[in-house]
Amino acid sequence: MREDKETPMVQAKSLRKVYGATQAVQDITFEVSRGEVVGFLGPNGAGKTTTMKMLTGFLKPTFGSALIGGIDVGQDALAAQTRLGYLPENAPLYDDMMVLDFLRYVAQLRGVGENKMGLEKVCEHCGLLKVLGKDLGQLSKGYRQRVGLAQALVHDPDLLILDEPTSGLDPNQIVEIRDLIRELGREKTILLSTHILPEVQATCDRILIVNEGKLVADDTPDALTGSQAGSVIRIVVKNKSGFAIEPENLRELFSDISGISRVDLRDGEGTGTWGFALRAQGTEDLREAVFGTAVANDLILLDMHRERVSLEDTFRRLTAGNTNNSIMGENHV
Amino acid sequence: MSKSLAIARREMRSYFDSPTAYIVVVSFLLVAGWMFFSSFFLMGRADMRSFFAPSPFSPSMMLVVIIPAITMRLVAEERKSGTIELLTTLPVTDTQVIVGKYLGALGLIFSCILMTVLYALVISSIGDLDWGPVITGYLGLLLFSAALAAIGVLCSTLTENQIVAFIVSFILCAGLYFVYYLQFFLPQTIAPIVEYISTSFHLDNLARGVIDTRDILYYLSLIVGALFLAVRSLARQHA
């Protein structure tokens, strides 16, 4: 190996891909270090797949360069491709081939030949031993994804690039594939794309979010969801005095608390009650201040709890075109 | 080269694992055998000239139809199913892919043609067969079909629709085959050029038992040219 341990496994240097008038990918730059498991997130059509195709050498970037283990894919695609295993979107396979024949074929083209021990290990790893003699066309979606993973692993690569490895699978299969990925992540560098958010939180060390061809976030899951990203305080208040109060006035009341960046009206718990979602910036716990404000204004606090911002919130904030209602999603459990 | 051979082996298996190969081989042997033997006994001569010589009613005409049908799926199918992404992101060059697929198709086509060696054996057992023209005839037929297969591979890289690939390569192959017959209607100045670009003209020379380097060079340059364009066309798709 000509590169040392310091060289990042993946380097994308202002990658750009232009199709006619549309810019599918606009100057995406990031690095993936050795041993990291990185999740690539974004809405459909954001440019995830295009970026991955450029990293694997399937597409040539219009501008910029992709390096795998320090090797420029544009200059020496073959050397870069020997270092990585790639599972394309929807796991395209030769439907007329048997599982074992297919894996042998890939191994031959990978130049690892009839390394039987290796193949057997990979099949066992991916849970394929029962279907080795079946035609790929007969396999269920879950098994197809596993074969796709197995073909990416036959040469024991340092880097795995997986494009939506769990799309179209049922919940049990998702858990299986996720466990497999987590296991592989212990020894390999993995870059995987998905739009299933809990999956990234469960498997990844770092998250890249792309939107409309641009990289909009590059951070750890904790940073994107944890205390630094702020929190949401949900309250339900009741009007003690019995006078009619406009919810707008209440909203202003709570907005005035320092540290609250945004107040949204939510459903109350019956007549005379109102619910609010208060978004707090920073790490400070503002519940005390909220309580004080409620008491000072003769309001009864029926309910109050604090939530971390979920990855879903962050994702929607970063990728939704309009910010309205996107920060504090309704999807909290 | 070993990677090309691995690809060629896969293509061959794919032909023989499906009904394609058997339909192609059986229909070629049936029609070519009928075309040849229907006139063979009438002429009463122990030679195979009419088997190799181009005509609208000949085994080589049969190849003009069959070869585009064999080659149409080679790249088009991979583009349609998306496996081309898998294949081109493996550490193989576009040239290795094209050469491998080409060799896979040639494997089926050549086995088809070489099965008719049986005819020569039968004829030599009932008459005094001159093997010279038979060997050059086979050389001609193999070169001819190798050239058509290269055109077929090129057409298969142009589209993801196998039917379109078939029609385009059939038109090209039939055009190059029949343009020879057009020369009687053309002015003296361009007739030799048309004659030279025709696949059937060169096949006719070899069928007569004449080995002329021009004929062999013609086929080889057609093969190399078409395969070169096919590599470029494949490379352009993931540009």
Describe what you observe in this structure.
The complex is a heterodimer of chains A (333) and B (239). Chain A is an alpha/beta fold. Chain A is built from 11 helices and 14 strands. A 6-stranded mixed beta sheet of chain A has the order 6-7-8-3-9-10, with helices on both faces. A 4-stranded antiparallel beta sheet of chain A has the order 2-1-4-5, with helices on one face. The two termini of chain A are 49 Å apart. By secondary structure, chain B is mostly helical. In chain B, helix 10 crosses helix 11. Chain B is globular, with a radius of gyration of 18 Å. The interface between A and B is medium-sized, with 29 and 23 residues.
- Quaternary state of this entry equals heterodimer
Shape of chain B: globular
Number of helical elements of chain B: 13
- In percent, how helical is the residue content of chain B? over 70%
Share of helical residues of chain A: 25-40%
- Compute the number of strand runs of chain B: 0
Range of strand content of chain B: under 5%
What ranges of chain B have pLDDT less than 50 throughout 5 or more consecutive residues? none
Rg of chain A (CA only): 25 Å
Strand content of chain A: 25-35%
User: What structural class results from the helix and strand content of chain B?
Assistant: mainly alpha
First-to-last CA distance of chain A: 49 Å
End-to-end Cα distance of chain B, whole Å, is: 24 Å
Task: Describe the secondary-structure layout.
The complex is a heterodimer of chains A (333) and B (239).
Chain A: E1 10-19, E2 22-32, E3 37-41, H1 48-55, E4 63-68, E5 71-72, H2 77-83, E6 84-87, H3 99-109, H4 116-125, H5 141-153, E7 159-163, H6 171-185, E8 189-194, H7 197-203, E9 206-211, E10 214-219, H8 221-225, E11 231-239, H9 247-255, E12 260-266, E13 273-280, H10 287-296, E14 299-308, H11 311-319
Parallel strand pairs in A: 3-8, 3-9, 6-7, 7-8
Antiparallel strand pairs in A: 1-2, 1-4, 4-5, 9-10, 11-13, 11-14, 12-13
Chain B: H1 2-17, H2 19-43, H3 49-52, H4 59-71, H5 73-81, H6 83-88, H7 94-114, H8 117-126, H9 131-158, H10 162-182, H11 191-197, H12 199-207, H13 213-237
Helix pairs in contact in B: 1-7, 2-4, 2-7, 4-9, 4-10, 5-9, 7-9, 7-13, 9-10, 9-12, 9-13, 10-11, 12-13
